[in-house]
Amino acid sequence: NDDGLITGVSCFDVATSSWQNCKTSGQSPGARDGHACTLIGSTMFIHGGYSKMHFRFTNSLYGLNLDTLVWELYPCVGPCVRERDFHTATAIGKNKIVVYGGRCGQQIFAASSFFYDQSFYCYDIQDGKWSEMNTTGYKPMGRRSHTAAHCRESVVYFGGFNSILNKHFADLFVLNVTTNHITEVRPWGEYPCARRRPACVLVGSELIICGGTSLLPTKEYIDHSDTFILNLFPTLQEICLSHILNNGMDYSVLPPHLSSYLKELRCIDEKRYEDEFKVYPIL
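RESULT FIELD:
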């Protein structure tokens, strides 16, 4: 927190809406921030981060068994991925973790001492080995503070920030972990503006993106409270209804349940506030 880095683990009980501190054992990671986290089975993995105690980035991988609350340091056989913070680590299946982005290097104080990695890396839990993924297709720029979600055989990425370029990102791209091919996706509908630190979660076939921070033309930062929903696999009916609404077509001849649904969406659409970034909720 603002007073310093902590090493404790806390658990939020959704049923009781309460927090509790967890007493862990084993080889636990040191205090850090900007680390990445993902879940495979009953093990929560954390990777990398910035150690304020040692004034350097880290590249260690730890796993916490959520059943026993025992920490374990996972080995690195052969070359390891570079030290970094504010990256993403995404679980793929039962044995692999894909790492992308982050601010890489050893120290944080001089801009010349860190860089933004454009490569994708995969850690095999069984072999304890890191490998660089030989990707094809779209080449996203290096960034930190982006967000990612696993969907079927792919990882979906959005947003981020590059301090060397002083650039926020709004691109949405998909890494197919089977073919290692990256595709930039330009969905129709209202779109979130360029931002860093957004949160996202996949619910069914819908990617929910919430919040984040952007830079205004006045050089002031704005923290967003908006939420966007992107349907990754829309049905033909949903595509048709969106086309009708976006093109102002007459929907009074449609069945009552569809016309009332479109009327409700249009009423919401008329109340939207149009700011400089055109940040709207997608319903």
